Automatic annotation (TrEMBL):
Protein name: Zinc finger protein-like 1
Predominant location: Golgi
Family annotation (Gene3D superfamilies): Zinc/RING finger domain, C3HC4 (zinc finger)
Entry keywords, A to Z: ER-Golgi transport, Golgi apparatus, Membrane, Metal-binding, Transmembrane, Transmembrane helix, Transport, Zinc, Zinc-finger
PROSITE patterns according to UniProt: ZF_RING_2
Family (UniProt): Belongs to the ZFPL1 family.
InterPro entries: U-box_ZFPL1-like, ZFPL1, Znf-B_box_ZFPL1-like, Znf_RING, Znf_RING/FYVE/PHD
UniProt-listed Pfam families: U-box_ZFPL1, zf-B_box_ZFPL1
Length: 139
C-alpha cells in the first residue's frame, strides 16, 4: 500500500512500473493511460516490464490505448480488431482480456474512473454496444 501523489491523495496498492509511483484509478485515466500497472508486490517480485501492446508488440505510446478493468492496457485499434473478429452472436462473457482472460465488459455495478472510461470507449463500437446493453448504431 502506498499514497498516490495526485491531489486526491488516495491510499492504493496499484503501482506504475514506468514511473515507479503508487497511482489511484483517477491517475490511471488522466496521467498513466499508457503505463503498465500492477500491485506493488508484483513490482517487488518482477520489476521488469514491457511497455508494448501484447497484441501487436509495438510500443503502447505509439497509438491510442484503452485499459480494461483488470488494468491490462492495449492499443484500442488492436483490441477492437481482435473483438471484431469474434462471431456476431458471441455472448458478452465471451469477450475476454487477451492477457488474463478477465472480462472486457465492466460489471454493471462497477463504478470508478477506469470502468467509466472503458464504457465510454466501448460504446463507440457496435460489437461492444450489445454487451453494454446499448442499442446498435448503423455502421
Amino acid at each position: 500500500m502506498g499514497l498516490c501523489k495526485c491531489p486526491k491523495r488516495k491510499v492504493t496498492n496499484i503501482f506504475c512500473f514506468e514511473h515507479r509511483v503508487n497511482v489511484c484509478e483517477h491517475c490511471l485515466v488522466s496521467n498513466h493511460a499508457k503505463c503498465i500497472v500492477q500491485s506493488y508486490l508484483q513490482w517487488l517480485q518482477d520489476s521488469d516490464y514491457n511497455p508494448s501492446c501484447t497484441l501487436c508488440s509495438t510500443a503502447l505510446a505509439d497509438k491510442d490505448t484503452t485499459r480494461l478493468v483488470c488494468y491490462d492496457v492495449f492499443h484500442w485499434s488492436c483490441l477492437n480488431e481482435l473483438a471484431s473478429q469474434l462471431p456476431r452472436n458471441t455472448a458478452p462473457a465471451g469477450y475476454q482480456c487477451p492477457t488474463c482472460q478477465g472480462p472486457v465488459f465492466p460489471a454493471a455495478n462497477l463504478v470508478g474512473p477506469v470502468a467509466a472510461a472503458l464504457r465510454e470507449k466501448l460504446a463507440s463500437v457496435n460489437w461492444a454496444r450489445a454487451g453494454l446493453g446499448l442499442p446498435l448504431v448503423r455502421d
